[in-house]
Write a structure and sequence with these properties.
Length: about 250
């Protein structure tokens, strides 16, 4: 059977001072596995150059972490290894978002990652040992954040992207934001080991495993300083779920 993958898109947005509207729910079936996803937002020189080199550098680290997770071993991650893993995780999260047509930030963020080979400021990356049914899986949520003391349609917004990349026994949780002012998130260190920013060696895995439910809740907006608007009107999408098949 020819490999294929599904992409599920859903969400909601504020469309008036008192109204939240459900965005279209779209389920797209595509040919090819999740390992062969492509985005046309990257030039050939970058794809075959620093991105390819980054993949080669990170591969043995990911395989050693995966082996340790499966065997139940404790393994150390040095600061330079954590930096490479985090850079790769942020790059992979952005490529997934771009392939889905999602806005992930300003061009300054891309240039920072490209030129320094480090995640931009305010990015965070965690790593957990996954135990569940999810195999090669990507969960992603994009949110536009505005200050609560300003008009709902104020143009000064921040693009927040949560991504969880699950590869069998590993789950990389990636948070990126394209501007200042958004309170930094935290995650349970008993399940998620912080690997960026990190200035010292860390031990992997954490005390507890990451379950499928932990993966799902990890990308949900769970921060006391951030909240969805409490509005009286919620408009449903009248068209229901749309199913598409693409080659």
């Amino acid at each position: 059977m020819e490999p294929h993958r599904w992409n599920h898109e859903a969400g909601f947005g504020q469309t008036a001072v008192d109204t939240v509207k459900e965005m279209p729910t779209v389920v797209t079936q595509r040919l090819g596995s999740v390992l062969t996803m492509k985005t046309r937002e990257v030039c050939r020189s970058c794809n075959n150059g620093w991105m390819s080199q980054l993949e080669r550098q990170v591969k043995p680290l990911v395989l050693s972490l995966m082996d340790a997770a499966v065997r139940g071993w404790s393994i150390g991650i040095l600061p330079d290894e954590a930096a490479r893993l985090s850079t790769w995780a942020v790059k992979t999260a952005w490529m997934q978002a771009l392939s889905a047509g999602t806005t992930v930030g300003h061009s300054d963020s891309y240039h920072y990652l490209r030129q320094r080979l480090l995640p931009p400021p305010d990015c965070k990356v965690w790593l957990g040992r996954h135990a569940g049914e999810l195999d090669f899986n990507i969960k992603q949520m994009a949110v536009q954040v505005r200050r609560s003391d300003r008009p709902w349609d104020d143009g000064d917004i921040r693009n927040v992207l949560w991504t969880c990349l699950t590869f069998r026994s590993l789950s990389f949780l990636v948070y990126t934001v394209d501007g200042w002012g958004v309170p930094p998130p935290t995650r349970d260190s008993n399940r998620w080991r912080p690997v960026w920013p990190q200035s010292m060696s860390i031990r992997f895995p954490a005390r507890f495993d990451v379950s499928d439910q932990d993966v799902l809740s990890a990308v949900a907006l769970q921060a006391p300083a951030l909240h969805t608007p409490d509005l009286p009107v919620f408009e449903r999408d009248p068209d229901g779920t749309q199913y598409r098949r693409r080659n």
